[in-house]
Amino acid sequence: MSTHRAVQVKSTGGPLELAEVETPPPQKGQVRIDVAACGVCGTDKGIANGFFPVSWPLTLGHEIAGTVAELGPGVEDFAVGDRVAIGWFGGHCGVCVPCRKGLFIHCVNGQVPSLSYPGGYAESVTAPANALARIPDELTFAEAAPMGCAGVTVYNALRHTRAVAGDVVAVQGLGGLGHLGVQFAAAMGFDTVVIARGRGDRERDARALGARHYIDSTSEDVAAALQDLGGAAVVLGAAGNAQAMADTVGGLAPRGELVVVGVTAEPLGISPAQLIQPAISVSGHPSGTARDVEETMHFAVVSGVRARIEERPLAEAAEAFAAMAESRARYRMVLTV
């Protein structure tokens, strides 16, 4: 058992505090990773506030990038020194029914860093080897970290829609998820729209990130504006606002899709009458497996997509977390170790 620094939360809603912790050596099928960077994700706020079943004290962080430092028994596909990332997908059991169907993201015993084992706000993490995604040489650790959750979530959602190059695809929200969603959508060849609140800096950012069109939801009828563009093949619901998502449904083209990735507990105000005649579909999309993360990073390399990040050292995790929780981050905070 080795000792490393980690940032812990000791109780629901408690402060983030730097501590010396013991990192267990890897067991069968596990590896230990020297963490180089860890993204600060919006879901970390919900975890710290007790919206998920957790054990205290808790080490947050599920956008991890680093180097394999130690191999457990039976790990043959990775070597010490390999550059790897772990995202929200933190391992699967391989024996439950979804796993036997190849649906590893729906594993009944699926693991998530910070919920299932100590996360990446730390110098060292021990994790299942089947959670690891190889980082391309072209990405730094800080660039790779957000791809494990935010990046794979939007990229994987977009590539599984029915949209083809040239179709109108709208990204609702221009935050940590949305700013990556608009880049991926533009890189895929979609006629990309951003729907956000206000103009000014937001519109300038949206266009700089690849949007051809911008809709200000505070001053325009979102559905009408989308229909003026010919109707959206896809709306990616990236901001966790149920009403804002519902407001886009009338702007979908026939057989259009609202794909929800922004998390909120609010119900969606959509009527069956809105869905039936145009054959609209509404679906949720989870993040993606370790292989999906690898493919996300590969596409980022070939397309030039990158998260806009602000780096902070591990000792400033509390400040980075507060910037994320208070929506002051533009657009992702990344802790570096």
From TrEMBL:
Looking at the record, which segments are called Disordered? 1-24
Q: Where is the Enoyl reductase (ER) domain?
A: 13-335
Into which family does the record put it?
Belongs to the zinc-containing alcohol dehydrogenase family.
Q: Which controlled-vocabulary keywords does the entry list?
A: Metal-binding, Oxidoreductase, Zinc
Broad class of enzyme this protein falls into = oxidoreductase
Q: Which PANTHER family match?
A: ALCOHOL DEHYDROGENASE 1-RELATED (PTHR42940), ALCOHOL DEHYDROGENASE-LIKE N-TERMINAL DOMAIN-CONTAINING PROTEIN (PTHR42940:SF7)
Q: Which GO terms describe its molecular function?
A: alcohol dehydrogenase (NAD+) activity; zinc ion binding
One annotated Gene Ontology cellular component of this protein: cytoplasm
Q: Does the keyword Oxidoreductase apply?
A: yes
Q: Gene3D superfamilies, alphabetically?
A: Medium-chain alcohol dehydrogenases, catalytic domain (3.90.180.10), NAD(P)-binding Rossmann-like Domain (3.40.50.720)
Q: What is this protein called?
A: alcohol dehydrogenase
Polar residues: compositionally biased ranges = 1-11
Q: Which SMART domains does the UniProt entry name for this protein?
A: PKS_ER
Which Pfam families does the protein's record reference?
Answer: ADH_N, ADH_zinc_N
